[in-house]
Amino acid sequence: MTAEERMAFLAEPHIGILAITRDGRAPLAVPVWYDYEPGGDLLIWIERDTVKDKLIRAAGTFSLAVHNETEPYKYVTVEGPVIANDAPPTRDQAVKIASRYFPVDRSEQYVDEALGEHSVLVRMRPQKWLSNDQSKG
Questions:
Q1: Is the pTM here over 0.90, yes or no?
Q2: pLDDT of 90-116, one tens digit each?
Q3: pLDDT by residue (tens digit) across 23-56?
Q4: Above 90 in pLDDT, residue 137?
Q5: Fewest Cβ atoms closer than 10 Å to its Cβ: which of 30, 58, 79, 113?
Q6: DSSP output for the chain
Q7: Is it true that the peptide bond before 72 is cis, omega within 30 degrees of 0?
Q8: Cα–Cα separations (whole angstroms), residue 102 to 16, 70, 93, 121
Q9: CA 74, CA 116: separation in Å to the nearest integer?
């Protein structure tokens, strides 16, 4: 994929697989919701003091992989440093993330129930990319 194609693919609503290194074990790999706009930072909304949060803080970096589950098969992986993870998302940021996965009315209800003092917005700056688009032969 070209740089523009992979950024556009990452910007589509996919479930991301977050991968974070950890000592003495295989990397943690878990599904997450995220937000991304081409050329910008990758955003994930998690809860403070969870396994994900502690590992992200310790590593200072992570990878995210997204893919199509139907033909034509495509995937993008991105990795980079965490540039912020010290504040909760605003309600608008949380709704924007949730709206990628729920209809707007349901995403607002979800955010109103889930957003709290233990929420944290993690901002990662994409630096390294891998991608494949099998429709290109």
A1: yes
A2: 999 999 999 999 998 899 999 999 999
A3: 999 999 999 999 999 999 999 999 999 999 999 9
A4: no
A5: 113
A6: --HHHHHHHHHS---EEEEE--TTSPPEEEEE-EEE-TTS-EEEEEETTSHHHHHHHHHSEEEEEEE-SSSSPEEEEEEEEEEE-SSPPPHHHHHHHHHTTS-HHHHHHHHHHH--TTEEEEEE---EEEEEEGGG-
A7: yes
A8: 15, 21, 14, 19
A9: 35
Cα separation of 104 and 102, whole Å?
6
109-137 burial: b if 16+ Cβ within 10 Å, else e: ebbeeebeeebbbbbbebeeeebebeeee
Task: Decide if pLDDT at 67 tops 80.
Answer: yes
Distance, in Å, from the CA atom of 39 to the CA atom of 61, rounded to the nearest integer, reads 18
Does the pLDDT value for residue 124 go beyond 80?
yes
3-state DSSP assignment of residue 14: coil
Listing DSSP states for 99-130 in one string gives HTTS-HHHHHHHHHHH--TTEEEEEE---EEE
Radius of gyration in angstroms for the set of CA atoms belonging to the chain, rounded to a whole number:
15
